[in-house]
Amino acid sequence: MSNTPTVELRSDTFTQPTSEMRRAMAEAECGDDVWGLDPTVNAFQKEAAEKFGFHSALYLPTATMSNLVAMLVHCEKRGSEIILGDKAHMHIYEQGGYSTIAGAHCRTVPNQPDGTLRLEDVEFAIRPFESHYPITRAVCVENTHNMCGGRVLGKDYLESLGALCKKYDVKLHIDGSRIFNAAVKLGISVKELTEQADSVTLCLSKGLSAPLGALLLTRTEADAVLAHRFRKVLGGNMRQVGVVACCGRIAINEMVDRLAEDHQNAKMLAEGLASIDGVACNVEAVETNMVRWGLDKKV
């Protein structure tokens, strides 16, 4: 094996637990979380719900499971439909779980280059209540947007989208697997950025150093009860899981501000790549921690 130093740039999921996290894992107070008796998990969920301004927070193994649980909650009734961007992670990279498992139909609208969905496209996609159609239950957006290069959906946009969803009595779910990056970029809190959402997925292992885990934030007791129930049927209930949940607690309290360093490094990398003859890289499109580049057509 080569001893040449390398820098891992493939994904922010390669972050390693910090020394503080490793100590916390060794010392974590644990109980059986299936029985609701893990004090570390209980404290973490309560703290997260309060911190982000939601009724409840549910700890899950992955963000993919969290998104799926959210769809099971919002689309509990048969004949439901969700609206997704055509480049959404939920649509492309999660095996269509909203359909194969949650039983929901999906209607896609085009993602704009900045990751947004045009409001007029969303409004057009919301079905009228008519016997030929499924019933639109939820609109799902991604912040930051992976396939659009880590682009940030701003607070004003989300407020407008939230108002549109409320107009038609449709739920708004945010796949916030990297929403901490969005909040850092905008200089506001995640709580402010998600005020319009009915549910939010937060990933704890993308850039934040936790070894695994996600949180599903929900607004109502009814949704929280359903989410807990659906986590069980998906195999997401875990026993003495405080041993890793403690890392998530450190992640949301100690690691978020450091994401600004990732953003600065990504911009520096993009500028360096753009300066190489034959390499195509849109520096202006680099808003957070993702850099997309390729070879110039002339090469």
TrEMBL record:
Please list the GO terms describing molecular function: L-allo-threonine aldolase activity
Write down the Pfam families for this protein, in alphabetical order.
Beta_elim_lyase
| GO BP, sorted A to Z | glycine biosynthetic process; L-threonine catabolic process
Q: What is the gene name?
A: THA1_3
**Similarity comment text for this entry:** Belongs to the threonine aldolase family.
- Per the database record, which ranges form the Aromatic amino acid beta-eliminating lyase/threonine aldolase domain? 8-292
Q: InterPro entries, per this entry? A: ArAA_b-elim_lyase/Thr_aldolase, Low_specificity_L-TA-like, PyrdxlP-dep_Trfase, PyrdxlP-dep_Trfase_major, PyrdxlP-dep_Trfase_small
Provide the alphabetized UniProt keywords: Lyase, Pyridoxal phosphate
N6-(pyridoxal phosphate)lysine (modified residue): where? 206
Q: Which NCBIfam families match?
A: GntG_guanitoxin
Q: What is this protein called?
A: Putative low-specificity L-threonine aldolase 1
What cofactor is needed? Answer: pyridoxal 5'-phosphate
Which Gene Ontology cellular-component terms appear in the entry? cytosol
